[in-house]
Amino acid sequence: MNEFDTKIISYLEEKLNKIKDKNYLSLFNDVEKRFKPKGLITCFSYILKTKDDTGLLDATIREINKKKYFDVLPSLIDFILKPSKDNAFNNVKVLAIKTISNYKNKKAMNALLFCLDDKNSNYRVRLAAAEAIGKIGDKNAFEHLEKIVCDEDEKSTYVKESAVVALGMLGDNRAIDVFDAIMNTKQIFQEKFSALKERIIEAMSKLDISKNKKALDILKVSLMDESSQIRINTIEVLMNLNTKENYDLIYDRLKYDSDIEVKKNALIALCNLSDASILNEVIDGDYCIELKDFAREIIDEYEK
């Protein structure tokens, strides 16, 4: 550190020794008034590099997220590469990763990919890294995310789910081939696989799939999935595509699905795709009382 930096750090250490009730916000405000933003940046970087107090680190990272000074980004990147120590430290690393994602700067990608690939790391840190990669949107991360999703030795289903969502956030239609391969794989742990399929449908909603036959085939199959939540999620994706063929697919769920919640979501989607005439069709048609009442509730809301 140069002489100016030394003065800042000496002042910071003096204040830290005297601080009461962990009122770090007043500390940072004081430093900023005394040394301007450059001094505050120096304090942030110094704390990230040298301090282990998770309370102080948490407060520092939250303040960094408010200020978003670009010069602090390298220190944040170095910080997330530190070995995890305990749950409290992992919580702070997760916060740091989320803060990094708000910069949306590709300079952080290598560190984020390292955190994601590290199977010895806490799974919450890996989840945050996957989300940050998707948020930054660097398509060069596609292969890393694909590897995580397709890795049979990957023990964390949650990490796989986060990688799937990140693939969708990248907006790279190569993800459709990955999703298709997963959907056609026979899985032993059906309950966990169902959650993964939900994330796939969620990810597909973020891709341009209106003219992609393979993607539409995946959605057609998902409409018949044994999970009612997957059928509901699929209806929402098809509704947003807004085509005549998709209207007919959703209409079939309204008519023939065994789950009332799926029927309700199908009815809402059909209203959005056309007009309110479908509501009168349900009220006057051969449908269950609960669905008829639901259609009347929607009409009442429209009238209000």
Quick overview:
With 304 residues, the chain is an all-alpha fold. The chain has 17 helices and no strands. The protein has helices at residues 3-18, 24-50, 54-67, 73-80, 87-103, 109-117, 123-136, 142-150, 157-170, 175-183, 190-204, 213-222, 228-241, 244-256, 260-273, 277-284, 289-303.
Description:
- The chain has a domain at 1-67.
- It has 17 helices and no strands.
- It has helices at residues 3-18, 24-50, 54-67, 73-80, 87-103, 109-117, 123-136, 142-150, 157-170, 175-183, 190-204, 213-222, 228-241, 244-256, 260-273, 277-284, 289-303.
- The model has no long low-confidence stretch (mean pLDDT 90).
Tags for this model:
304 residues; mainly alpha; 17 helices; 74% helix; 0% strand; elongated
Question: Which residues sit in consecutive blocks of at least 5 with pLDDT less than 50?
Answer: none
The portion of residues forming beta strands comes to under 5%
> Could you give the count of β-strands?
0
Largest sheet: none
Oligomer kind: single chain
- In round numbers, the mean pLDDT is 90
Spatial extent as radius of gyration: 25 Å
The level of helicity is: over 70%
Chain-wise SSE layout:
Elements: H1 3-18, H2 24-50, H3 54-67, H4 73-80, H5 87-103, H6 109-117, H7 123-136, H8 142-150, H9 157-170, H10 175-183, H11 190-204, H12 213-222, H13 228-241, H14 244-256, H15 260-273, H16 277-284, H17 289-303
Helix pairs in contact: 1-2, 2-3, 2-4, 3-5, 4-5, 5-7, 6-7, 7-9, 8-9, 9-11, 11-13, 13-14, 13-15, 14-15, 15-17, 16-17
